[in-house]
Amino acid sequence: MTAHRILVIDDEAGVRDALKQVLAYEGHDVRVAGSGGEGLTVYPEFRPHLVFLDVKMAGLDGLDTLTRLRELDPTATVVMISGHGTIATAVEATQRGAFDFLEKPLDSDRLLVTVRNALNLSVLATENQRFKRAADQAHAMVGSSPALHGVRALIEKVGPTAARVLITGENGSGKELVARAIHAASPRRQGPFIEVNCAAIPSELIESELFGHMKGSFTGAFADRPGKFELADGGTLFLDEIGDLSLPAQAKMLRALQEGEVTRVGGAKSMKVDVRVLAATNKDLEAEIAAGRFREDLLYRLNVVPIVVPPLRERAADILELVAFFAKGIAEAAVVPSRQFDAEAVVRLQRRPWPGNVRELRNAVERLMILAPGKSVTGADVDRILGSGGESAGAGAVNPDDPFTAPTFETFKLEAEKVFLAAKLRQHDWNVSETARALDMPRSNLYKKIERYGLTREPS
User: Fold this and answer.
1) Distances (CA, A) of 89 to 56, 86, 310
2) Looking at the chain, which residues constitute the CATH 1.10.8.60 domain(s)?
3) Helix spans in 139-202 (H)
4) Do residues 272 and 212 touch, judged by C-beta distance below 8 A?
5) Rounded CA gap, 89 and 107, in Å?
6) Among candidate residues 326, 406, 402, the one with its CA nearest the CA of residue 361
7) What would the pLDDT profile of 182-229 be if each residue is shown by its tens digit?
């Protein structure tokens, strides 16, 4: 049985000792506290999975302690125990966030069942938090370049509104991340976020996918099925690659946007839906309208607020942060061992044109972490594994003795630091301790930077 941390708060020594004995016998790590104040002191350090809390205690009573515990940790799982239990007390404890209420004397079978159920809830809550953090990380917009700052500013303005947004940009530039950020910034954030890739669904099925269908409306329609508009009711519908939507589906889409109603394929009755629509495309919709492949009136409905996502080549300064972000995530997922990218590797990556944008960069980082032979990824590794012919035209090499030849400010900062540290190490005859003391830098930090930049002592 997995050991869990359990805290018992009770002012009766006999109850504390009895609970500790039973729970410790079951393999749990148990601590006890003789008052509400002591329990509140122990809780942050012990971080229990479950708390048993007496209702009637001298000084700070159990209900007030429960309130403070929930303020300290809104996810705290607390079981109240009392020898003077009443329905009113149990109701109040539940309203304040208690998981359960047990009466003294405690029945051991009921106690153990409650422990099992409460710990299952605690584990589930922890897993949900972990999955939420992983999801938030997966959909994070990483970078601090002016171009990305402009996108974030638009998201902050349009997110809280009900306006429809048309997101344009190249493949892999992060249009879905922008859509998710708009949803997260909106009053609909607790509602569903439903995504439809219009290019991935056959044209004969797209209407059914968007609006649903009735049983028997076409071959293979064996049951009634709601469409994405219905599923997104109360939330956000993200239509990716909207430029690939067929003209018949565009007509029904226009009606849904105008009237807030949808009709399932084969159905006669329309239904109201409350959906905010965000759309994205990598196509020039004006050109598609001129070619007769896209409805002009639909574009006007979708394009209330336009957001253009810049390609990665226009925000090369973000590559340093993106590489660190991807490398950390890949290592944490246990795909490959953790590896640092030295300054020259980052410089080489910043010079590349990245036609596949952020998605291509993420794949490149994983490939380099898998195939690089050393503890860190070097510039030579980038050239060998990714090829050296992909640098942007005119990017030029950085002169190691002249950081001002760097193509971006981030590259300049990295090169300047590398040149500065190499000069200081030479000045102190490569005595790392003396160099760190002169720079007022922890020696461990200097060692990390020496490894990061691949600095080595020149042969005499």
Assistant:
1) 11, 5, 59
2) 314-453
3) 146-158, 175-184
4) no
5) 20
6) 326
7) 999 999 999 999 999 998 888 788 889 999 999 988 888 889 999 999
- The two structure tokens encoding residue 253: 């889409």
Amino acid sitting at position 276 = R
Q: Tell me the average pLDDT across 289-316.
A: 94
Q: Which residue has the tokens 């925000």?
A: 315
Pick the CATH number of 146-308 from 3.40.50.300, 1.20.58.1190, 3.30.70.2740, 3.40.50.720: 3.40.50.300
pLDDT > 50? residue 397: no
Per CATH, the number for 5-135 is 3.40.50.2300
Contact of 54 with 15, CB cutoff 8 Å:
yes
d(CA 425, CA 432): 7
Quick count: other Cβ atoms within 10 Å of Cβ 130?
10
Residue 273 Cα distances to 195, 206, 248, angstroms: 16, 18, 20
Strand 270-272 relative to strand 261-263, pairing:
antiparallel
Residue 406 near residue 393 (C-beta atoms within 8 A): no
CATH 3.40.50.300 boundaries in the chain: 146-308
Residue 105, preceding bond cis, omega within 30 degrees? yes
Distance between CA 108 and CA 374 in Å, rounded? 57
**Residue 338 carries which side chain, given as an amino acid letter?**
S
For the domain spanning 314-453, the CATH number is 1.10.8.60
Over residues 137-155, mean pLDDT: 87
**pLDDT(392) > 70:** no
Residue 384 CB contacts under 8 Å (≥ 6 apart), including other chains: none
Q: Where in the chain is the domain with CATH 3.40.50.2300?
A: 5-135
The angle subtended at Cα 336 by Cα 335 and Cα 338, nearest 5°, is: 125
* Residue 397, helix vs strand vs coil: coil
* Choice among 34-43, 303-312, 339-348, 393-402 with the minimum mean pLDDT: 393-402
